[in-house]
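User: I'm new to structure prediction. If I give you an amino acid sequence, what do you actually give back? Let's try with this one:
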Amino acid sequence: MLEELFPENTKIKAVKEKSQAIGEFLKWLEEKKIHLVTLSGEHGYNFVYTSTEKLLAEFFDIDLNKVEEEQKQMLKELRKLNLEG
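Assistant: Good question. You get back a string of structure tokens that encode the predicted 3D arrangement of the chain. For your 85 residues, that looks like this:
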């Protein structure tokens, strides 16, 4: 039931361990001064300035805007339960 109401947050939960490991690896690369770049033209490079969070979301096909909407809805539902309880 919750999976149907909050599908993007369900995806996050499903990939949590993998996502955390990849995130730690990306942080380790940064600490080693190893940076991601994209090729530009024949010999050019552009640094990738995309946040780790956004890279992971794209990799795991998670829509961060929908995640935020779902989290707002979760809070709304929790407040409603607290007022009723």
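You can read the tokens as a compact description of the fold. Here is one thing that stands out. The chain has a mean pLDDT of 93.
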